[in-house]
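Supplementary Methods. Inverse-folding protocol.

Structures were first reduced to a discrete structure-token string of length 209. This string, shown here, constituted the complete conditioning input.
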């Protein structure tokens, strides 16, 4: 569906005693360390993922992006978002939605952005990552005119946005999409998406002190 008119890298790692595989997933956390609210140190966040059985853990910037590897025999990826969210609530008293993507899913998300394909300036582009895809009827009911000048495309569990007036002014908010599609969404700019994909392709060898 398409509606018309509708920084420096900071990393922290948890090291494991043996060499780890490439990071195969990224976790997106919503609403942490924004405007001085919901403060969650990246070191503590990485430790929470380590306790959950994840390895080769890296965080990227303070807004809540965690790259990690997970052995399917030890980590249930389907229940990990809830597990991480519960651990954050218990430790910090924060309710933080968590959305996961595998490396393969991130590559697909990177490749199918229709606005990039149309040659639109990448600094105007953003992506909502959804916990689950919305029903087709709910997608069709989305208001293409909700935020004049802004455009969005729903593609499975991603919503691609062209926001020429800036993300701070758009009415295409996560609250709107969460309510309309009965899901949980979290927003990233296109530069962050590209950087995370690049990081997931590189080797991460870590060891625990």
């Amino acid at each position: 569906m398409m509606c018309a008119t509708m920084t420096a890298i900071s990393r922290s790692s948890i090291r494991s005693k043996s060499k780890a595989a490439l990071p195969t997933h990224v976790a997106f956390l919503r609403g942490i360390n924004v405007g001085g609210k919901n403060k969650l140190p990246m070191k503590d966040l990485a430790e929470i993922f380590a306790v959950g059985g994840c390895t080769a853990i890296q965080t990227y910037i303070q807004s809540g992006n965690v790259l990690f590897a997970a052995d399917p025999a030890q980590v249930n990826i389907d229940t990990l978002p809830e597990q991480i969210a519960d651990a954050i609530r218990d430790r910090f008293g924060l309710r933080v939605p968590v959305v996961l993507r595998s490396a393969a899913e991130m590559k697909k998300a990177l490749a199918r952005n229709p606005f990039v394909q149309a040659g639109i300036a990448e600094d105007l582009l953003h992506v909502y990552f959804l916990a689950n895809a919305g029903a087709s009827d709910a997608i069709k009911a989305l208001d293409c005119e909700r935020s004049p000048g802004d455009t969005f495309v729903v593609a499975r569990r991603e919503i691609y946005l062209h926001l020429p007036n800036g993300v701070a002014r758009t009415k295409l908010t996560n609250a709107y999409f969460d309510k309309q599609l009965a899901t949980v969404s979290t927003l990233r700019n296109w530069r962050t998406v590209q950087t995370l994909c690049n990081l997931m392709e590189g080797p991460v060898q870590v060891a625990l002190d």
